[in-house]
Amino acid sequence: MNQTQPYLQIALDSTDLSTALNDVHHVADAVDVIEVGTVLAFSEGMHALKTLRQHYPQHILVCDMKLLDAGETLAEMAFASGANWVTVGAAAHIETVRSAQRIAQQFNGEIQIELFGHWTIEDAKLWVESGVTQAIYHRSRDAQAAGVGWGEHDLLLMEQLSEVGLELSITGGIVPEDIHLFKNIRAKSFIAGRALANHDGNTIHDGKTIAREFRKQINHYW
Amino acid sequence: MNQTQPYLQIALDSTDLSTALNDVHHVADAVDVIEVGTVLAFSEGMHALKTLRQHYPQHILVCDMKLLDAGETLAEMAFASGANWVTVGAAAHIETVRSAQRIAQQFNGEIQIELFGHWTIEDAKLWVESGVTQAIYHRSRDAQAAGVGWGEHDLLLMEQLSEVGLELSITGGIVPEDIHLFKNIRAKSFIAGRALANHDGNTIHDGKTIAREFRKQINHYW
């Protein structure tokens, strides 16, 4: 895939597929990547992935499994159901990463390492040696709720990961005004969930307008 | 629950519910705990959990989500679908652990921390402070396949976790002959998957006989 600018990605994290289909319907034209979030995947199973693949054959489709074990079985299930990218938790044993990566290659797909827990740059080098090219830098939803913000520490780590050779997808309550923070990062994708849906809890807004604001910022900095 | 001996737990890790129902049917009388494995949960969604709850109203039911984020939403989904215990990955942010634990208390359920990645005894103390009483010591399936066995290092860590106050469920290619290794551990449950089903890849055997052998060993050492 020839990519000159970071992608825009919608994460679908509702507990039911009909809400997810409605959320993505409004902004599908404005996003490059559609993610079946962990919540939706656990709620509806691979049926959610298959249905989204049918509805959106041209989009990059991500299955956010954050898998930690059974790399071969889980990755095969997701890729066979239509995923292009599958996420693996950073805490997974390196053999699990390798198993998932082997399956990804068979399907011409990609593995993304989702950065949770006490991972190190040495781990990152092992992932790259295993053939992995992507990681997801994630400000935890629960950490956000507790008031933890983007900081110098995050950006430094992202730069180090870029240097090791990983492209980064960035997520965690990201808004268009944050985009400039990441201009020195090898950004693969910016992931937003509720901001791109037409609702955010009780607030009704136009996800398409937000998508355009994201795109404007991306165009400005890349 | 008044527990004097470790439980025996069957992990259902098939990709389809009908295989899982068949696997558990043969040994349900011989096990205390039924686990919807990550593979089955991602494949069939919460429908798998609800179906097993209907079929087995008296068993302890585990949903092995290994959740790393969205602790409240995911835990609520699993407990509301019939789970008694829900697993959280050790790499989860402590706020995620706390969120999941709050939900567990509302449902009179329990959280189990599944030990993957570079966790420390300091982390374990934080989990206990959050109200968590259980952890799962896990020899990774992919690590097993690569020939990594139970060792002194595992047992030492398990003793340290016991001392911190965590009861441990132990899993990862466990066979009845391994049970004696864990006699000094606060063992909550021994988890087996394919050994308790009536097949293990191409080998056909009687899961009920294996369950009896596990029980005999448990009775001998506790």
TrEMBL record, chains A, B:
* A GO molecular-function descriptor: orotidine-5'-phosphate decarboxylase activity
One record GO biological process: 'de novo' pyrimidine nucleobase biosynthetic process
Which CDD domains does its entry note?
A: KGPDC_HPS
Q: Which UniProt keywords apply?
A: Carbohydrate metabolism, Lyase
Does the keyword field hold Isomerase? Answer: no
Q: Does the keyword Lyase apply?
A: yes
Domain Orotidine 5'-phosphate decarboxylase residues, every copy: 7-214
Give the signal peptide, or none.
Answer: none
E.C. number(s) listed in UniProt: 4.1.1.85
InterPro entries xrefs: Aldolase_TIM, HPS/KGPDC, OMPdeCOase_dom, RibuloseP-bd_barrel
Q: What is this protein called?
A: 3-keto-L-gulonate-6-phosphate decarboxylase SgbH
Q: What is the lineage of its organism?
A: Bacteria, Pseudomonadati, Pseudomonadota, Gammaproteobacteria, Vibrionales
